[in-house]
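Every protein is a chain of amino acids, and every chain bends into a shape of its own. Below is the pair of lines this work produces for a single protein:
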Amino acid sequence: MADVGSDQCLTERERGLWLAFIEASHLIERLLDQRLRTETGLAYAQYEVLLRLSRLTYQVTQLEKAGLVHRRNCPSDDRGVVAHLTAAGQRMLDKLVPIHEAVVREYLTGTLGPAQMDALASVMCATRRHLRGQAPADPSPVSCPGEPV
C-alpha cells in the first residue's frame, strides 16, 4: 500500500462533507426503497431498471417474471435482446414516479432554499462530470442540461 502524504489526506471539512454525503445518500436510498416496496412491491433497483431499461440481466429477468417488461430479439444484432415495458410495467412506473419524487422532496430538496439547491446541483453535476471523465463545464443549474443522465 502506498504511503499517503499529509497533503493527500482529507481535511476535517472534506471528511465531514464526505461522511454527510455518504450517510445522506444511503439514508435517502433506503427510505426510497422502503417506500417503493411498501407502496408498489418493487425495490428501488427494479425502479431504476424500469427507468433506464439497463443491461442488468438479473433485474430485467425479475421484472419480466413480474410481467413488467418483455424481451425481444434485437433486429440489428442477433446476439442482442431488447427489453420493452409492458402495459403493466408502464402502470407500475406511473405509480413509482410520484413516490420517488415525494421521497426526494421530503428528504432532500424540501429543506433547501433555491440558492442551496443551485449550489448542491452545481457540486453534484461537477462531480458527475469528473467521474465520467468529462471536461469541467460552467456550473449548471439543477438538471445539468445537455449532459446524459
Summary: The radius of gyration is 19 Å. Residues 22-131 form a domain with the Arc Repressor Mutant, subunit A fold (CATH 1.10.10.10). The CA atoms of residues 55 and 126 lie 26 Å apart. The chain has a mean pLDDT of 81.
